[in-house]
Design goal:
Helix content: 25-40%
Strand order of the largest sheet: 1-2-11-8-14-5-4-3
Distance between the termini: 45 Å
Strand content: 15-25%
Largest sheet: 8 strands, mixed
Number of strands: 16
Radius of gyration: 20 Å
Shape: globular
């Protein structure tokens, strides 16, 4: 059963399957609510321990119809002819806007271009293509929208701009909870995130033969995110794994009605590592319980895809390959002009004090992006 506003957190005894906390957005939308403080502490506890959580009850900000529309537009975009997508290619890593064909980006645990190049050689390219969307109005960094191509592209732009702003509002709400969880004033981060220097990423992992995974390939390599928070909306194909505290990996099962939220390196650094930025990857999905369907670019993925049970004896013939996976990630960042230094209360009584030197948010983010993205 999918989680709902009234269902308890589902726990499992399988150590390879996620037991991530379920946190409701409802009390976080009302700071005057008696449960606002306790919910904020619960959210921070999740970010301190696993670094990941499931967020429920987000529909006041992002209705199901909006999310379905975004997934539909994403599938339609990636089904475009390759020359149309290439015409909208990202100009550079620091632009963080536009289309990136498979192989252009290699998400990695490495911190330098040399580290990432070595990982490319050893593990191969990531099996994905993406389209990146930044905030409107950033001087000298225009968004290459497909509205120049046709009416579908016009509708795509309108839908994505609306979704970007909805996620931006969610970012402010969650950062207020983080502030309270850290013992700071509720509005501590408001003027540090209000610009919206964030990134909306549409991801398409094409249908892939199982043999490719047996050769050691992954859809997205082991990495941590670079910003403060990530909101992940995913279909029900699966394949996301997070690193466990004790080592090894566990599956983050897709759950209808949830957003997967995780902390990134900027927030970990900002909190003097009080908050955990957890490594994760996208690997071969678990064996499907419904028949494998060949890739069909005209089909519409949904964040609420369902499956029917199938006997194990039928699985082998039905899983010669894996269907495409679609997900949407919203990467939250501080305003680019913010100075990232250990937050009050995170270092004063810690042996060694501050673990990191201060750094500008823009400088830190761009250094990480430039290490992972090839020029066109």
């Amino acid at each position: 059963m999918s989680p709902s506003a009234t269902s308890p957190t589902t726990m499992t005894e399988d150590p390879t399957v996620s037991n991530l906390p379920l946190i409701s957005l409802t009390p976080l939308l009302n700071p005057s609510s008696p449960s606002f403080t306790s919910a904020s502490h619960a959210l921070l506890s999740a970010l301190r321990t696993s670094g990941f959580l499931y967020l429920t009850d987000y529909t006041p900000l992002i209705p199901p119809s909006t999310l379905t529309n975004i997934f539909t537009h994403s599938a339609t975009f990636f089904a475009r002819p390759q020359p149309q997508k290439d015409a909208l290619a990202s100009r550079s890593a620091s632009s963080n806007r536009g289309y990136m064909r498979p192989g252009r980006e290699k998400v990695s645990r490495g911190l330098t271009a040399q580290d990432v190049a070595k990982e490319r050689q050893e593990a191969g390219e990531d099996m994905k293509e993406t389209y990146e969307i930044g905030r409107e109005g950033q001087e000298g960094n225009p968004q290459p929208w497909p509205d120049v191509l046709d009416q579908t592209g016009v509708e795509f732009r309108v839908a994505m701009q609306d979704f970007f702003l909805r996620c931006k509002e969610l970012h402010v709400v969650v950062m207020r909870a983080v502030a309270v969880g850290l013992g700071l004033e509720k509005g501590f981060f408001d003027e540090m995130v209000h610009v919206g220097d964030n990134n909306l990423r549409l991801l398409h992992y094409p249908a892939t033969a199982r043999a490719a995974f047996k050769e050691g390939r992954v859809r997205a390599g082991e990495h941590s995110d670079y910003g403060s928070l990530t909101f992940l909306f995913q279909d029900l194909r699966g394949g996301l794994q997070v690193e466990k505290l004790e080592g090894g990996w566990m599956d983050v099962e897709p759950r209808e009605g949830t957003i997967v939220v995780n902390a990134g390196d900027t927030l970990a650094r900002w909190s003097n590592d009080l908050i955990r930025s957890t490594k994760h990857r996208v690997v071969e999905p678990p064996l499907p319980s419904s028949p494998f369907l060949p890739s069909n670019p005209s089909s519409t993925p949904s964040p609420n895809l369902s499956s029917t049970s199938k006997s194990p004896s039928n699985l082998e013939s039905e899983t010669e390959g894996h269907p495409p996976r679609y997900s949407i990630a919203y990467f939250c960042n501080p305003n680019y002009e913010v100075w990232i230094d250990a937050l009050p209360g995170t270092w004063e009584n810690v042996d060694g004090g501050k673990k990191y030197e201060g750094i500008g948010a823009r400088e830190y983010l761009f250094s990480r992006l430039e290490a992972t993205v090839r020029e066109k």
